[in-house]
Protein: ABC transporter ATP-binding protein
Amino acid sequence: MTSHTTARPILDVAGLNARIGGQQVVEDVSFTVPASGITALLGRNGVGKTSTIKALIGLIDRTGRVELDGQRIDKDPTWKLIRRGVGYVPEDREVFGKLTVAENLRLAERDAHPRRELVEQLFPDLVKRSGQMAGTLSGGQQQMVSLARALLNDNKVLLIDEPTKGLAPKIVQEVAEALEQAAATVPILLVEQNLQVVRRLAGDAVVLSGGRVVHTGNALDFLDDEDLTRRLLGVHADAEQEAQEAEAPVAAGATAVSSSVAASSTQAAAPAPAAADPARKGAGL
Ligand SMILES: Nc1ncnc2c1ncn2[C@@H]1O[C@H](COP(=O)(O)OP(=O)(O)OP(=O)(O)O)[C@@H](O)[C@H]1O
Structure:
């Protein structure tokens, strides 16, 4: 996969700073996200990947300059960013467990003509499960709901935080497949710890350490550099794959997420006044 560095980036981040509880968690972070493909945001645990995503989407206070397709967005609150076409798929999926799959998706519809056909094509399993309570889905299926919600709308960019976390290897591959197809329709900034997934999907990589950008460049070149990946990620891609195969984690359980930030961010992503209109029901979802 190649990046398109000559075209204007869809996201241009310059001097982004954010603090949580007095701690500087994002420090003078600058990078760009090309207008197509997947850009991976990488780094060891706790280096500020999630905080960077949350700062970009306005869930934590930030300073600095952020442009979306050439327009300043760094002063916008979360709801406005969502309306301007910044899709957000949070780390913990944040589905509404007591609502059905179809209801979760309907809640997320923002556009006059949500892209239900695309979602039904990408996630046939969700069509089959449209009447199932989302809280009874597996972790992988909940991840599909979370991705589907963002893909229903015509976004300019998606911010996706650790979509394969805690999933069994087979489900990781399914999520990667869905991300690959999604990336054909919208540029993505992806936080991802699974380096095989990064290798498969990412064009560019931005690497953080201690809240700062310590490397940017082609993702494959980065992953192929054993010294650099060991230094910046603490592991080399091939060693990581062997460890994962040995470990074979069990799929995450069907827990519904309920933190206050989770609730507010999910609701912010779902301001659909027309969503309850039964006349707009699609054939599947
Ligand atoms: N709610 C919070 N309260 C206090 N400190 C926090 C909070 N959230 C994050 N931090 C701190 O901010 C720093 C960056 O955390 P962040 O979650 O952004 O890192 P990360 O790179 O996404 O980590 P991981 O890969 O483990 O998800 C860490 O030191 C973390 O302990």
